[in-house]
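Morning F.,

Quick status update on the modeling queue. The single chain you submitted on Monday has been processed. Sequence for confirmation:
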Amino acid sequence: MAGNPRAACIEALTRWEKGTEFADAILHRALEEERLSTLDRSLFMEIFYGVIRCRRTLDFLIGKLRDEEADTRTRQALRTGLYQLLRTRVPRYAAVNETVANAGRSRSVVNAVLRRFLREEKGLLKALEEAPLGVRLSHPDVLVTRWTGQFGEGDTARLCEWNNEPAEILVRVNELKVSVGELTRAGGGEPIEGHPLMLRMEKLPIPWIVSGLCYVQDPSTLMACELLAPKPGERVLDACAAPGGKTSYLAQLMKNEGLIVACDVSADRLTRMRENLERLGVGNVEVRKADWLRIPPEANDMGTFDRILLDAPCSNTGVIRRRVDVRWRLKGEDFQRMPGVQIGLIKNLALLLKPGGRLVYSTCSMEPEENDEVARRVTQDVPGLKFETARRTLPFRDKVDGAFAAMFTRN
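Structure tokens below.
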């Protein structure tokens, strides 16, 4: 018997609410377990990610519609129903009836709340329009306050709106196997202005992925690699490389010549990276497991790399559009904790850089503590590294994910 997308969604959201699993992992597990048709899989994914994005807005409305606190599963059913009514093209009778039918013991509560919303919708939406920005656009106050101080209220609202929209399908053409012209002539994709290797896709051709003709990647991720500018024949270290998107682009820039040592701390992620690199036709990479915070650099690597890329662990505030539950996991102390990790990594990696070599530090964060402040501290605290330049992207300005890259050279 085929599964039901709304029942599956309520169960998946209930698991997510426990806070021990990431949204992507829960979604992939649910899709493996549930027997859903292609259309039902799409509906399940839309509702699951949509509810997580709009969680604070939905809870605001639930609070207006119901005085009593709901248990976790009932709240997920209410969120599921309200999201369909607010943000999808599902017929309203279907959104209510199907959600109620799959609400289990809370059917009567869910039915009453959803039907009350339909009766009072105009007034409820007016109250939502007058609510604070964080409620209206479903972001935690810790982020809204930070961003308002950095960017102003208008750009913060635009950033939150960007985060609430599903990400487009964007791919980088893998020139190790095919040219941009060959793919576009094959009828695939729309070129993106300012990013000659990138295509915007309405639907991703699976044979392209299987054959390694392209890699799903946001244009912002290319910035750090282009700032590193590796040359064919050089020895390059990609310190935190998995799952291999930047590594494969470095190989493309190097025309598969020279050596890239690609590292990660996770054995599982290294396995996935090996598979990706093999599929993409990358032939100049040596994969290693390494924890650059805890394991001292090997003596035979000291001062041997022409270029080092450190795509550092960070708060991920620039990619909330793609990592939908990041906004609810971040705490204020995270922005104070991460720079210590990032600078510790740079200190160890700097020992491996040749005199005259280039190190690029990058994040997918928009936070000054992890970006400009780290670059400033490196200049002060890491002997031998000289700051050269920095680049950044901001979603509300550049229409791509948020990212930062700073380039240093070794004296």
